[in-house]
Specification:
The protein has about 350 residues and is an alpha/beta fold. Helices cover about 50% and strands about 10% of the residues. Helix 2 runs parallel beside helix 3 and helix 9 crosses helix 13. The two termini are about 20 Å apart.
Length: about 350
């Protein structure tokens, strides 16, 4: 099955580990993937939230294979999988991208090779992504995350040059928070010349946070976002994205009322993103453990979450409010007996 990425919101899935041994907890992992998919979120596997840097290549493949089977078994064969395959060298990134394709991934997301950041010229960075894309059997998405790439922060010109270099580059995720950058990239990649040169092959622009979904969809024509908060509030974020897309139709009945609803929900989501972002991977897992009964440990050297911080965050007024919204939306979807797509 050929699965396009399209317009959607994505959850970077945590990798769950067994206590003490730190072996993969695959049953918990696939249950979480399916739960989020039924809420309307698509999965990103072996990304930063998934502690990819602490996984072996074979563990990444196990996660991809398991997720694909679980989604198919759950009656969700149309849900695409993005998989992290960036491992440093061009050679090994290509190798892992090929293995990810065989395992069932639909797209590889690749971070800039940042270990030798000081030696990575603009020419080297563009060549890295283009070389990987040209040799990958599945499309490749650019992952711009300076914090995990030795400080490398690709500019809009860099990203546009990479996109121009290979039609197998099909998108970008910006975890740099650059709304202006996102706008410039979307402007370039929606021109008639760009689209024509690629024979219409998709290119999606995705933000890396939940706190600007509404303004980037309306103002920058973003195609969605990939954000860690989706693990905690999948129904709220899916609803916000759908409202945002609907507002692109100027003939929408009650446009002002829909915008007011979207803005109110975006405000809550932005408050939640602000509260949870500093908590990181261990905080996300600790919150999942409290709310859903799973989450568990990080893989060392990441330390467990400090006791009491989840409770302190949950006591915030905005978090109480969005928890109520999430429960209401989840209940409505389950009552109707349909998935969130």
């Amino acid at each position: 099955m050929v699965r396009s990425l399209g317009q959607n919101v994505w959850a970077p899935i945590p990798t769950f580990f067994l206590p003490v041994s730190e072996d993969l907890d695959v049953p918990t992992f696939v249950a979480h993937v399916v739960y989020l998919a039924k809420a309307g979120l698509y999965p990103v596997i072996a990304g930063s939230m998934g502690e990819a840097h602490h996984l072996s290549p074979s563990e990444r493949i196990t996660l991809i294979t398991s997720a694909r089977k679980a989604l198919d078994d759950a009656g969700l064969p149309e849900v695409p999988i993005i998989a992290g395959t960036g491992v440093g060298s061009t050679r090994e990134t290509i190798k892992l991208s090929k293995e990810a394709a065989e395992a069932g991934a639909d797209c590889a997301i690749v971070i800039a090779s940042g270990y030798f950041a000081g030696a990575m010229s603009k020419e080297a960075l563009v060549k890295f992504f283009v070389d990987v894309a040209e040799s990958s059997p599945i499309p490749v998405m650019i992952y711009n995350y300076p914090g995990a790439a030795g400080g490398i922060d690709l500019t809009s010109n860099d990203i546009n040059a990479i996109a121009d270099g290979s039609s197998n580059i099909v998108g970008v995720k910006l975890t740099c928070g650059g709304v202006g950058k996102l706008t410039r990239i979307t402007g370039h990649t929606t021109t008639k010349a760009f689209v024509s040169a690629r024979a219409g092959k998709e290119f999606v622009t995705l933000g890396g946070f939940a706190d600007f979904i509404l303004p980037t969809v309306l103002g920058s024509k973003a195609d969605g976002a990939i954000m860690g908060l989706a693990n905690l509030y999948p129904y709220s974020i899916s609803k916000l994205f759908k409202l945002s897309l609907s507002l692109l139709d100027p003939a929408l009945p009650n446009w002002q009322a829909v915008h007011a609803e979207a803005f109110a929900l975006q405000t809550l989501v932005s408050e939640a993103d602000f509260a949870y972002a500093p908590l990181g991977i261990s905080g996300t897992k600790a919150t999942l453990q409290k709310r859903r009964g799973y989450g568990g440990v990080t893989r060392l050297p990441l330390l467990p979450f400090e006791e009491g911080r989840v409770e302190a965050t949950d006591a915030l007024h905005a978090i109480v409010a969005i928890n109520e919204v999430e429960d209401r939306l989840a209940g409505a979807v389950k009552a109707n007996g349909v998935n969130g797509h």
